[in-house]
Amino acid sequence: MNNVLTHSRRIVVKVGSSLVTNQGSGLDMEALGNWARQIATLRAQGSEVVLVSSGAIAEGMQRLGWKKRPSAVHELQAAAAVGQMGLVQAYESCFRQHKLHAAQVLLTHADLTDRERYLNARSTLRTLLILGVIPIINENDTVVTDEIKFGDNDTLGALVANLIEADALVILTDQTGLFTADPRKDASATLVSEARAGDAKLEEMAGGAGSHIGRGGMLTKILAAKRAARSGAHTVIASGHERDVLPRLLQGESIGTLLTASSLSLDARKQWLADHLQVSGKVTLDAGAVRVLRSEGKSLLPIGVTQVSGEFQRGAVVAILDETGKDIARGLVNYSADEARRIRGKASGEIENTLGYVDEPELIHRDNLVLL
Ligand SMILES: Nc1ncnc2c1ncn2[C@@H]1O[C@H](COP(=O)(O)OP(=O)(O)O)[C@@H](O)[C@H]1O
Ligand SMILES: N[C@@H](CCC(=O)OP(=O)(O)O)C(=O)O
């Protein structure tokens, strides 16, 4: 019996490519019907559920008659555009059988890194949940390029869990959970039934995707659990082939791997900052500045900055690096890259002399700064 999930009222369910397709070609309608039925059960019990579903590329390939997954990005994008139609049509008809409306929500990285779009996405999802609609989320493959895509839907699932402050993220896949090593390669691997999300040991156990269908493998699921935990969401990694896995999990049954979040959660603004995978620039600090940020939770003053790279405006999100180049924090800057270069290493009292004006004494205020 596991009480952690019985208290979950808002849940993000991610179903991987391996579970929604027929060996990578076309959709497995029976599987989709099965997810819809289980989600309808949760909904009837009062839970709010968001579904993150892959499958667009596989369905698009089948509709276009392609036997082999293309490697060219524009062809994958074309397949995703064709296949997404089929994916939402299929879900729409499955959910309709349970008298539930479904909504298509396609997100990109940029949607979650821009504060205004992030807030819009959040309020739309909240509204859909209040209306009793099941949002079905996928990456907007058509407009993303290699550099800016999530690529796997595990990361997307975690960011959605952060976005709507979900209680739990359930990642369903083709394995029964996280094993001590990839079970496809190591027959002696054993199932990890419970661990703390973010435990570094888990990353060593996890390998890449087990088939040509899936993208991220176990590592992206472990990292997704770590990310989801930042807003307090627990993660379960379990097999989608397990009968009635969703209602059973919520009834407290121990199935798969439970990765627990500590009860500490960052406030929404800091959460948004921590979620920035893409940043506009970087500032490198000296050892003293790193120490006061870490141990005293202070604001970052220009005097502690040794280097500024990239081009950014006031209000942008930047990565904060320690003197060895390690990424240690995210922050919203009070000065542009140009201004920051001019005031770096200087005392705050010198800002006015250097720039001719002073907006704020600190480069990044502590309220706008989050340690990673
Ligand atoms: N430690 C591990 N425990 C379980 N599975 C692992 C592990 N390391 C790697 N894997 C592989 O990860 C695969 C699941 O990821 P993936 O293929 O991306 O599926 P999905 O499409 O569901 O995201 C499994 O089939 C398995 O081969
Ligand atoms: N957005 C892509 C799915 C990406 C993907 O395969 O992710 P995953 O299910 O995590 O292995 C699609 O719908 O085809």
Automatic annotation (TrEMBL):
- GO CC annotations on file: cytosol
Q: Which UniProt keywords apply?
A: Amino-acid biosynthesis, ATP-binding, Cytoplasm, Kinase, Nucleotide-binding, Proline biosynthesis, Transferase
PUA domain sequence ranges: 281-364
Q: Pathway it acts in?
A: Amino-acid biosynthesis; L-proline biosynthesis; L-glutamate 5-semialdehyde from L-glutamate: step 1/2
Keyword ATP-binding listed: yes
The EC number(s) this enzyme carries: 2.7.2.11
Q: Which domain of life is it from?
A: Bacteria
Q: Which InterPro entries match?
A: AceGlu_kinase-like_sf, Asp/Glu/Uridylate_kinase, G5K_ProB, Glu/AcGlu_kinase, Glu_5kinase, Glu_5kinase/COase_Synthase, Glutamate_5-kinase_CS, PUA
Question: Where, subcellularly, is it found?
Answer: Cytoplasm
Q: Does the keyword Signal apply?
A: no
Signal peptide per UniProt: none
Q: Which GO terms describe its biological process?
A: L-proline biosynthetic process
What enzyme class is recorded for this protein?
transferase
The principal location of this protein is cytoplasm
Q: Name one Pfam family in it.
A: PUA
Q: Name one GO molecular function term.
A: glutamate 5-kinase activity
Reaction it catalyzes: L-glutamate + ATP = L-glutamyl 5-phosphate + ADP
Positions binding substrate in this chain are S54, D141, N153
Which residues does the annotation say bind ATP? K14, T173, D174
Summarize the protein's role. Catalyzes the transfer of a phosphate group to glutamate to form L-glutamate 5-phosphate.
Question: What's this protein's family per the entry?
Answer: Belongs to the glutamate 5-kinase family.
The name of this protein is: Glutamate 5-kinase
Provide the species name.
Sideroxydans lithotrophicus (strain ES-1)
